[in-house]
What we know:
CATH architecture: 3-Layer(aba) Sandwich
Keywords: Catecholamine metabolism, Magnesium, Metal-binding, Methyltransferase, Neurotransmitter degradation, S-adenosyl-L-methionine, Transferase
Organism: Tachuris rubrigastra
Order of helices and strands: HHHHEHEHEHHEHEHHEE
Number of strands: 7
Number of domains: 1
Largest sheet: 7 strands, mixed
Protein name: catechol O-methyltransferase
Oligomer: single chain
Radius of gyration: 17 Å
GO molecular function: catechol O-methyltransferase activity; magnesium ion binding
Enzyme class: transferase
Amino acid sequence: GTAALIWNEIIREKVTNFIMNQSKEQRILNYVLQNAVRGDPRSVVDTIDKYCSQKEWAMNVGNEKGLILDKTVEEVNPSVALELGSYCGYSAVRIARLLKAGARLLTVEFNPQFAAIARQMIEFAGVQDKVKLLEGPSEEIIPQLKKKYEVDTLDFVFLDHWKDRYTPDTILLQECNLLRKGSVLLADNVIFPGAPDFLTYVRKSPRFQCTNYPSHLEYMQVEDAVEKAVFLG
């Protein structure tokens, strides 16, 4: 089943890491540096998708759910966007390429190794002027957004970090007055690995209007979904 598939991927990754003395994330970056076109975000995104579908699975949002992400970003047309969970910078590059002139994306990554990879990926894609990577835990960074990073309110938030942080961080965004009427939250992996408490929270809250987009886990035929929650004020 699914668990066995993913378990095999994890074991294969650990063996490869040991032999090559580098992480999977470093291998993804190296593949991009060697095969993608510098300064072309679309090429970077496509090259990561190619690597992860053909060589090693990775937890990027991927192409199928990426199209839902693209469509949402285009609809919202945000001036200020926040991403929780940069990982290798895939979705940051994907979002940044759709931002209008003068718009910015703040992307938060807790893992210093991932942050280092994401920084290089963003720079190679040529979107570093639009993207600011903030390193640290989301619960510490969110309360600093207004003062330290001059955010008034967020037009768009992409949740793709630890699933158990989805609900507390959504509550924190509200407590810090970072959401306005019409702010859009988009949450990845709500079915697999799953964020059931988040779905319950936003769907039961009178402050959110929710839409579910059934899809598949990145690069696999495993059921997953993306949840859109519009803040009603």
